[in-house]
Amino acid sequence: MPLNVLVVESNPLRQRIWSQAVKKAGHRVTSVLNSWQAIESFYEYRYDVVFTTVDLPDMDGESFIRRLRDIESHSVTDDFPVFIVAIVSVDTERSTLKEAGASEVLTSPVAIEPALEVLTDWVVLHDVQVEWVLV
Questions:
Q1: Is the pTM of this model over 0.85?
Q2: In what order do the strands lie in the sheet with 82-86?
Q3: Which domains does the chain possess?
Q4: φ, ψ at 82 (rounded to 5°)
Q5: Is residue 12 exposed (0-12), middle (13-18) or buried (19+ Cβ within 10 Å)?
Q6: Which three-class secondary structure state does DSSP give residue 35?
Q7: CA distance 53 to 55
């Protein structure tokens, strides 16, 4: 069963790479350039997964995650994983992002396939029925 994945990335090249990888894995993808576009999109669609960077131009990663979790808490849908791709210099930054609601914090630079493996592990752990197909 394909997932609805939101990719939030301000760099158009990285956004395209992530989006193509998610599509190749057999999932539907929506890509946006900043946190406000992502938040607006959340009011229109239901996403199963969010991949985002922490260095968005209009909102810091911690605030963005908290905003998504606030939207989630007011909806009738199940919780969704938020995977953060970040340059995290110390464990306290990782802890801060996790406390804000990040499901996983992936240290940049991150390879696509290992990132999708982390997602697969999360899906299995939470007993979600998904089949990954990497081409």
A1: no
A2: 28-32, 4-8, 49-53, 82-86, 104-107
A3: 4-125 (3.40.50.2300)
A4: -115, 115
A5: exposed
A6: helix
A7: 6
Q: What's the token pair of residue 3?
A: 């997932």
The candidate with the shortest Cα–Cα distance to 102, out of 48, 47, 54, 55, is: 54
Residue carrying structure tokens 């990285």: 14
Q: What is the largest CA-CA distance in the chain?
A: 37
Phi-psi region of 101 (alpha: psi -120 to 50; beta: other; left: phi over 0): left
Tens of pLDDT, residues 23-32 = 888 889 999 9
- pLDDT tens digits, 77-122: 556 666 666 555 566 677 888 888 877 777 666 666 666 676 666 6
